[in-house]
Amino acid sequence: MRKKVTKAIFPVAGMGTRFLPATKSVPKEIMTLVDRPLVQYAIDEARAAGIKEFIFVTSRGKGALEDYFDHAPQLEQELRKKGKDQLLEVLKSTNMDSGEIAYIRQHKALGLGHAVWCARRLVHNEPFAVILPDDVIAAEKPCLQQMVEAYEETGGSMVAAMEVPEEKTSAYGILDVKEDMGSMVSVNSMVEKPEAGKAPSNLAVIGRYILSPNIFKHLNKLKSGAGGEIQLTDAIAQELEPEGDGVYGYRFRGQRFDCGSKAGFLQATVAFGLAREELRDDLEAYLHEIMAAKKAAE
């Protein structure tokens, strides 16, 4: 019987330099998208997929991230006293019970592969998920839940994939597809950030993975790759060898926002704002007002 995926790694050691000066004192992962930190969207998605253990790979200056998941007895008491039960429930959804969450330091910025490798002793010999909180995915059924359900049929390793314009393939890990089965593809090889015009397809890997524990053996052997970093895609590619368990790309159903960029963060803010019933009318009216003003100026 195939082991269930119950552990997830969240690599959050980056300094968030694209959002300076905000990230001088605030970890990027707790910057708010509407009224929830980016990391809360990732946690909610993981919980929906059946994840029970949450492993954060952090770095110096991430204390506010750890505090976010802690209980706040004084605040809870004040909300209870004032009868703000709805807010109390919202607050409770951010708490993590003792033993559910662990933090590991990545002392050197050596890339995503190295960040995942840092968590090896907590994962042991089990399949596990990796979630990049920068990639926020709006979906009726959460992306990782879709992947876990597909993984139960395939095993091996699995990456979330989406089609990107050809001119943007150099910004992603790109799949060389062996067989296209619709929502699922079997992978022939993977190329990390190929030069313009040399990508094997336009199917890009984005920040959701389900990985075999064999990945840690591959990461142990890796030297730095593209960008001078230890690339996770290089380790996943080794699962394509004859003795490996195979790699699959999963075309998830949903819209991905790159909240690691300012433009993507703003786009997500608008999209998630419009999705909220209590905000939609005011936000739509404001957007229409902006567009009308722009047309009048032209």
Outline:
The chain is built from 11 helices and 13 strands.
Could you give the topology of this structure?
Elements: E1 7-11, E2 32-33, E3 36-37, H1 38-48, E4 53-58, H2 63-68, H3 73-81, H4 85-92, E5 101-105, H5 112-118, H6 120-123, E6 128-131, E7 135-138, H7 143-154, E8 157-163, E9 173-180, E10 184-192, E11 203-211, H8 214-221, H9 232-237, E12 247-251, E13 255-258, H10 262-274, H11 277-297
Parallel strand pairs: 1-4, 1-6, 4-5, 8-12
Antiparallel strand pairs: 2-3, 6-11, 7-13, 8-11, 9-10, 9-11, 10-12
Helix pairs in contact: 5-8
Can you describe this structure?
This protein has 298 residues and is of the alpha/beta class. The model has no long low-confidence stretch (mean pLDDT 89). The strands form three sheets. The chain has a five-stranded mixed beta barrel with strand order 8-11-9-10-12. The protein has a two-stranded antiparallel sheet with strand order 2-3. It has a two-stranded antiparallel ribbon with strand order 7-13. It is globular, with a radius of gyration of 20 Å. Helix content is 35%, strand content 23%. It has eleven helices and 13 strands.
